[in-house]
Amino acid sequence: MSSSVSRFAAGYARRSFHAGRTSFSEAKVIESPVAAAAPAITSSTATAPPTSGFRSRAASFAFGFGLAGMLGYSRLKMDVWQAAEGVSDSITVVKTDVSAFQSQLAALQQRVEKLESSQQPQQQ
């Protein structure tokens, strides 16, 4: 029995649903041809699981911050352009209204002048 198989069996017995009913010595070790052919894990070949360090966490934070900043900037830019188009459309509408009012004002001024000129000879 190799040490890797016994370590697996010990871990399985501890994590098993029936672990409370069986002790470590009662755990069954199943020999398989795959496990027998696999090289034994020793302390020199076994490595600790990689833990994320400060540098990788800082890089992930910086990437996320940069991505959120770019998305926010593009959304803000789109909102500003839409607002500018709305203001431009409003200015165009106001210009047409002002030109219509100016033409009405000119017509009214001509009418008033015509009425005043027709009233002046009668008053004398």
Textual characterization of the structure:
This protein has helices at residues 3-15, 33-37, 54-123. The chain is rod-shaped and about 130 Å long. It is mostly helical. 0% of the residues are buried. The model has no long low-confidence stretch (mean pLDDT 78). It has three helices and no strands.
Attribute tags:
rod-shaped; mainly alpha; 124 residues; 3 helices
Label the structural class: mainly alpha
What about the largest sheet? none
Shape: rod-shaped
Beta-strand segment tally = 0
Instruction: Give the percentage of residues in beta strands.
Output: under 5%
Counted by DSSP, the helix tally is: 3
The first-to-last residue Cα distance is 136 Å
Instruction: Extract low-pLDDT stretches.
Output: none
Overall average residue pLDDT: 78
Helix content, binned percent:
over 70%
Rounded to an integer, what's the Rg over CA atoms? 44 Å
What order do the SSEs take from the amino end to the carboxyl end, as H and E?
HHH
